[in-house]
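Table 4 source record.
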Amino acid sequence: MKLRGRFSTIHRRNGWPEEFALASQRFGEDWRAAREDDAAAILAVEFIERQCHEEDFEYFVLWAVHGVSFSEMHKRGWGSTAAISAAVFRAAEAAHAIYSGNEKKEPSRFQIEATKLLRELTRD
């Protein structure tokens, strides 16, 4: 997968690790696929949501899926651009952990079983 658009920009200009930018881009694609009942994408989106603070996840969706910039969110009164950027970065970190199979939190029985299913569904 090659970085495109705002995902490439966040990597180049803001110094995000490429793997976080790629995870963000993949999340945006999975979000759209989940809306069309793609089982693997639905699980991936649910896993990422479970690994994030609710507010971080909301900002991440706005940025990664809907293309709302940090400055636009700031103008809407949702906090400083630095705080919003940090929240989105934390969510991108969680997305990368899910996609790489290195979740930070102790997984629940549901997550273990769902991870097995997700890997089966996404096996090439």
